[in-house]
Structure formats: C-alpha cells, structure tokens
C-alpha cells in the first residue's frame, strides 16, 4: 500500500549541549502540524512536554503504529538501546507507509549509530521514508561520530554553536557553510541552510 503524500523533510540538527538545537526542533515539529510525532527520547525530555505521551514498552508503541493512531509519542528505551532504536525506526517507517505523513525526532543519534554504517532500520527510514511523507529530525552534538547517511539525504541543516574546533570544521565541510560563521555562533544563534535551494539564513532562537 502506498499513500499519496507530500515529501517529508530531513532536518539535521547540530550543536553543542544547551545550544538551542532541541528547542528549535520542538518549534519545527509544532509548525509542521503532523498527524503523528514519534520521538526517540533517550534523555526522557520530550515526554515532559505538553501533549506528549510517554511510552516505555515497545509493545505499546507497536499498538499505536499498527492502528495508525494520531498523537505525539515519546519513546523512552528501557533496554538494549541499539536494538530498540532499530525497532523504533522500523515502526515509524511502517506508520508512514500505511497511515501517511508523520514525523520522527531522533535524540543523540551518535549514541545509536556510527559513522561507518547505518543500522538497517535507520537506513531504511532515511533512504525511503521521505517519499512516504515521513519528516526526520535527527539531533546530535557531534555529527562526526554519527551516521553519515542522514547528512547525505538532508533537505535542511540547522547548525548551532559547536563545542570544539573539530566540530566546526566537520560541519563546515559537510554543509558548505563558512567556517567563520559557524565558529562565531553564540548560544541560541544558528544558521539554517536549505540544501535543496542553497539558501542560507542566520537567526537567534527567542522565547516569548
């Protein structure tokens, strides 16, 4: 079964701890008005946001996915993280394939992927999910240590302040953004590059 949907977007969220990348992701997901949102919530943060249901048992997540339930779900792994991550990705792919547009947020991607090879479920989600209307928001402090498949398929880059010079170098190389602009970012400041058009904008995250 294949549904006619708008293509999803793959937004790379990069930056040091407390730089603003997760707050920006929350805002982007809210703006997207997705039928369903699934969060790989390894830090148990999203589960505390208004409107998100905390799930700790994969069987409960599977029930949501199989029935195509709308809503916002924060999955907090209680077991083998890498095995759970693979199952989580497969579940999101199933939802998008059979029930339409949805979004997945992947916190701390470097904890469950490596730079050499994408886990099978994650690879399927990245390579085949966008055309099924699945939007992805992978988040990492250090993309040099995370899976490269996502960067190669990205539609958008949101680059916040980096922790080290090597992180600055890596993101400049992978995004084509000027190294100097990345290096001088302050907390909550970010650069956004639309990978499809090449347009670059800079801004600062504010809270009202």
Number of domains: 1
Name the CATH architecture: 3-Layer(aba) Sandwich
* Total DSSP helices: 7
Mean pLDDT: 94
Distance from N terminus to C terminus (CA atoms, Å) equals 43 Å
Output the CATH topology. Answer: Rossmann fold
Protein name: Helicase HerA central domain-containing protein
InterPro entries: P-loop_NTPase
Q: What is the element layout, followed by pairings?
A:
Layout: E1 11-14, H1 21-32, E2 36-40, E3 52-55, H2 58-67, E4 71-75, H3 81-99, E5 102-106, H4 120-129, E6 134-140, H5 149-152, E7 156-160, H6 165-175, H7 179-183, E8 189-194, E9 200-204
Parallel strand pairs: 1-6, 1-7, 2-4, 2-5, 3-4, 5-6
Antiparallel strand pairs: 7-8, 8-9
Helix pairs in contact: 2-3, 3-4
Question: How would you describe this protein?
Answer:
The protein has helices at about 20-30, 60-65, 80-100, 120-130, 150, 165-175, 180-185, and strands at about 10-15, 35-40, 50-55, 70-75, 100-105, 135-140, 155-160, 190-195, 200-205. With about 210 residues, it is an alpha/beta fold. It has a single domain (about 10-205), classed as Rossmann fold. A 9-stranded mixed sheet has the order 3-4-2-5-6-1-7-8-9, sandwiched between helices. The longest helix has 19 residues, at about 80-100. The radius of gyration is 16 Å and the shape is globular.
Give a short overview.
With 208 residues, this protein is an alpha/beta fold. It is built from 7 helices and 9 strands, in the order E-H-E-E-H-E-H-E-H-E-H-E-H-H-E-E. The longest helix has 19 residues.
């Amino acid at each position: 079964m294949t549904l006619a949907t708008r293509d999803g977007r793959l937004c790379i969220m990069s930056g040091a701890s407390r730089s603003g990348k997760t707050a920006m992701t929350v805002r982007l997901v809210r703006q997207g008005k997705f039928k369903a949102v699934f969060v790989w919530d390894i830090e148990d943060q999203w589960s505390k946001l208004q409107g998100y249901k905390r799930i700790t048992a994969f069987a409960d997540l599977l029930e949501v996915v199989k029935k195509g339930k709308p809503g916002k779900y924060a999955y907090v792994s209680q077991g083998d993280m890498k095995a759970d991550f693979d199952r989580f990705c497969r579940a999101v792919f199933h939802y998008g394939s059979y029930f339409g547009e949805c979004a997945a947020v992947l916190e701390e991607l470097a904890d469950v992927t490596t730079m050499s090879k994408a886990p099978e479920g994650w690879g399927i989600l990245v390579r085949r999910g966008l055309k099924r209307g699945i939007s992805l928001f992978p988040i990492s402090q250090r993309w040099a240590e995370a899976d490269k498949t996502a960067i190669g398929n990205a539609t958008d880059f949101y680059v916040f302040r980096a922790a080290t010079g090597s992180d600055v170098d890596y993101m400049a190389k992978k995004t084509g953004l000027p190294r100097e602009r990345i290096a001088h970012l302050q907390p909550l400041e970010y650069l956004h590059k639309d990978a499809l058009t090449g347009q670059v904008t800079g801004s600062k995250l504010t809270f009202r």
